[in-house]
Design a protein that fits this description.
About 25% of the residues lie in helices and about 35% in strands. By secondary structure, it is of the alpha/beta class. It folds into two domains: about 5-140 and about 200-230, Vaccinia Virus protein VP39 (Rossmann fold, 3-Layer(aba) Sandwich), CATH 3.40.50.150; about 145-195, N-terminal domain of TfIIb (Single Sheet), CATH 2.20.25.110. Helix 1 (about 5-20) crosses helix 2 (about 40-50). Bound molecules: S-adenosylmethionine (SAM).
């Protein structure tokens, strides 16, 4: 559904992460990395290729983690099927070199309070000098008219369109319309879910409040925020 082969998506995320993390050429085993909302693992495998080991992939979708495991081979990747907000429950404090929450995963949390709580857990879980990378879409500015219809994917057997309904100030209702070809017929699958409208200035301030030094950039069409946890004194 991404319109790009798996390996090309991993390579794209590797470029984004190398730029964000600036690993030194001499580094070999870069230590523990955690991918929050890993989905099928584009960032998980990018982190593994950069040299992080092990990489912990956390997602609430068993189906997506199965897809990730199908690509895993002998890579030092571990999966946890669970709620990423419970990070403190499955990783010890001050153990991770890098934590990422990418591909618009952070907007799946229920409200700004949940985002602030996650930021605190992430700051606790990183070692001093560790890095947190977010990539997401800032939907705080309302999109109107035909711009609310977003073509996501199309091939000879599937067509997916997304419709954004800006019905609340804090969230947007995302409607996914997926047409699947079945012989001569097209079958429509409809679903919807809410995403948070997180202004980038608010998110950056929230990261600063828990102690990160933050740099903004782009991750393809998404915004990228890189938070550095200060070294211990
Ligand atoms: C938009 S996808 C991004 C996946 C992947 N990072 C990527 O870039 O392709 C969001 C992912 O977060 C997962 N997710 C959403 N809320 C979650 C939660 N509370 N705990 C764990 N995973 C969650 C979903 O199952 C989904 O795989």
């Amino acid at each position: 559904m991404f319109g790009t082969p798996f390996a090309a998506k991993v390579a794209e995320q590797k470029t984004i992460l190398e730029d964000a993390l600036q690993p030194t050429a001499a580094s070999r085993d870069l230590g523990l990395a955690i991918d929050l909302g890993s989905g099928s693992g584009f960032q998980t495998f990018a982190l593994s290729e950069i040299g992080y080991s092990p990489v912990l992939a956390v997602d609430s979708s068993e189906a997506l983690l199965k897809e990730l495991q199908a690509h895993q081979g002998s890579r030092p990747v571990q999966t946890i099927c669970g709620d990423l907000s419970k990070l403190n429950g499955f990783v010890s404090p001050a153990t991770a070199q890098v934590i990422v929450c990418m591909g618009d995963t952070i907007t799946h949390l229920s409200n700004e309070g949940a985002v602030e709580e996650l930021l605190r857990s992430v700051a606790d879980t990183l070692i001093p000098g560790g890095t947190f990378v977010i990539s997401y879409r800032d939907l705080s500015v309302e999109v109107t008219g035909l711009d609310r219809f977003i073509p996501v994917y199309a091939d000879e057997g599937k067509v997916m369109t997304c419709f954004l309904e800006f019905d609340r100030p804090d969230t947007v209702l995302v409607h996914d319309l997926l047409y699947n070809r079945e012989g001569q017929q097209w079958r429509l699958e409809k679903s919807n879910y809410r995403k948070l409208r997180l202004p980038v200035d608010w998110l950056e301030d929230a990261m600063v409040r828990v102690g990160f030094k933050v740099h903004r950039g782009q991750a393809g069409r998404l915004l990228r925020l890189v938070g550095h946890k200060p070294q211990a004194r």
